[in-house]
Each structure stands twice: as structure tokens, then as C-alpha cells.
Amino acid sequence: MKITLATRLTFVRVFLVIPFMYAALSDGKLMAGAALFLFVVASFTDYLDGKMARVMHEVTTMGKFVDQLADKVLIDAALLVFLQHGEIASWFVITIIARDIAVSGLRMIAASNSNVIAASWFAKLKTVSQMVFVVAVLLYHVTPVLGWTLNIVLMWITFAMTILSGFDYFLKNLEVFEE
């Protein structure tokens, strides 16, 4: 199996999680700035790998699965760091992780019947909202100029997008359970 350049870029996103977490769990504005930079770079690879796969006509089933996994690892790592710092509530993190597990389960059931469920636009908006939320919290660590209130608003938007995109996946793919 040939691993495309876009998929390799997706793996870069996964590997960036390690230095991101190290920086995010460390003290000081310099490390907070490093965590913010690493997260933004990792998030940008999400855009780049998809664009690259489409432009180079290398959209693959493996790429679709690995891309989703990489997004989940990056976002969940950031949320777990925030949870450890006491900055977000456990119900918020559990909701996001539970939705991810449920949608991954749906995808696995579909894949067992040779069906691939691609990411919907709703799910892409959910991922963007999660990334924007994480960037806002990390930016707050570097400079609290925007205030914590913005983070709370973004958290609720992210929560709503997470729930709605989960329902969207299941409603659009009910036939998976009939096979």
C-alpha cells in the first residue's frame, strides 16, 4: 500500500501532539506560546492534507480514516490538558470524546460492510469550532487580552456543534444499522 504525501502530512499532525502536550503542560508564557504555535501548525496540516489529496487526486480510504483519527488525537489531547489544568469541565471533554467514539463506531460498522462514511461538512465545521476553541484558550495563556468570556462562548458553540454533528452522522447513516 502506497502512503500518499497527504497521508504523510496527516501523520505529521499526530506526531506534533507529543511536543504540543509537553509545551502545554509546562509552565511559563514561552511554553504557552510554543504550545499555541505547535497547535496552530498541527491544525493547519488538517487543511493542507485535504487540499493536497484533492489537488493531487490522491484521496484514499486510508487517508479518510487517518485524517479523522489525527483530528481526534490532536483535539482530545488539548482538551485533556485543559481538563488537567482545571480550565474546562469534565462533562465537556466526555461529551466530545463520547461523540467521537460513537461516530467512529458508526464508521467501523459501515466499513465492515465495505462502506466508507466521509466527513460531512457539519463535522468539518465541528472540527473547526473545536480548533478555534483550543486556539482561544491557548492564546489566553499567552495574553489574556480577549478575556475568558470569549472562551466560554466558544466552548458552548463547540459543544453545540459537537452534539449536532453527531446527530447528523447518525441520522444520515441509519441504513448502516439495517445491514
Strand-helix topology:
Layout: H1 5-25, H2 29-55, H3 61-84, H4 90-112, H5 121-142, H6 148-172
Helix pairs in contact: 1-2, 1-3, 2-3, 2-5, 3-4, 3-5, 4-6, 5-6
Write up what this structure looks like.
With 179 residues, the protein is mostly helical. It has one domain (5-178): Four Helix Bundle (Hemerythrin (Met), subunit A) (Up-down Bundle), CATH 1.20.120.1760. Helices cover 79% and strands 0% of the residues. It contains 6 helices and no strands. The chain has helices at residues 5-25, 29-55, 61-84, 90-112, 121-142, 148-172. Helix 1 runs parallel beside helix 3 (61-84). The model has no long low-confidence stretch (mean pLDDT 90).
Low-confidence stretches: none
Count helical runs: 6
Kindly state the percentage of residues in helix.
over 70%
Q: Compute the gyration radius: what is it?
A: 17 Å
Total strand segments = 0
Order of helices and strands: HHHHHH
What is the CATH architecture annotation? Answer: Up-down Bundle
